[in-house]
Amino acid sequence: MSKHRSKRYQKAAALVEEGKTYGLEEAVGTVKKFPAPKFDPTVTVSFHLGVDPRKSDQMVRGSVSLPHGTGKNVRVAVFAAGAAAEAATAAGAEHVGFEDLIKKVQEGFTDFDVAIATPEAMTEVRKIARVLGPRGLMPNPKTGTVTDDTAKAVNEVKAGRIDFKLDKNGNVAGSIGRASFNEAALIENAQAFIDSVKRAKPASAKGNYIRSVTVAAAMCPGVPLESSLFATN
């Protein structure tokens, strides 16, 4: 292990048995035993997939509503006008607008975690794709963020829906809560996320779709899961 790792990281790493894969309950229990920092760390489930990120027909993306939320205050921007804008505001979206909000983003504003747009607004929102896209903020119908029912979308996002997308290295990751969550909540959230990624398997994917899955708290080592938990046909 690198001597540059913190003492807290090294203590956590000592709890993870080298070469072992863990059942979900044992993995979450191990993460909960990691030495606690001064903040409440995010717990993440990360997948390494056996697909080719360069092929459009092997793209993996989707969304999942976690049964116990993420423990994070999700800041939402909604590009809409009229009744859809009013509904988004009533549902608790932090930033709601159309031309004015687009102009603000063009000037560099990206102080939000999720962007939602009505289908009508998307013609204009595409003009700021080069700002939103690289940050993973571009609204997309496949993740439910392009919709006329803005109130429903805002409520789902704030209640604990996470969007996931394959990165250029063939990985997918998402937050399943905080280290302060009880074990049962983290286990149920993790299982919901694993099931969702399994369902998102592209029809063109051949061979071993999910190669590995790890559970980790921020600034701590990953705990590898048993392959039986994520095996697909």
Automatic annotation (TrEMBL):
Gene3D superfamilies for the chain: 3.30.190.20, 3.40.50.790
GO cellular component assignments: ribosome
Keywords: Repressor, Ribonucleoprotein, Ribosomal protein, RNA-binding, rRNA-binding, Translation regulation, tRNA-binding
Keyword Ribosomal protein appears in the UniProt entry: yes
Pfam families reported in the protein's UniProt record: Ribosomal_L1
Protein origin, superkingdom: Bacteria
Similarity section: Belongs to the universal ribosomal protein uL1 family.
Function, as annotated: Binds directly to 23S rRNA. The L1 stalk is quite mobile in the ribosome, and is involved in E site tRNA release.
Subunit composition and interactions: Part of the 50S ribosomal subunit.
PANTHER family, sorted: 54S RIBOSOMAL PROTEIN L1, MITOCHONDRIAL, LARGE RIBOSOMAL SUBUNIT PROTEIN UL1M
Name of the protein this chain belongs to: Large ribosomal subunit protein uL1
Upper lineage: Bacteria, Pseudomonadati, Verrucomicrobiota, Verrucomicrobiia, Verrucomicrobiales
Gene name of this polypeptide: rlpA
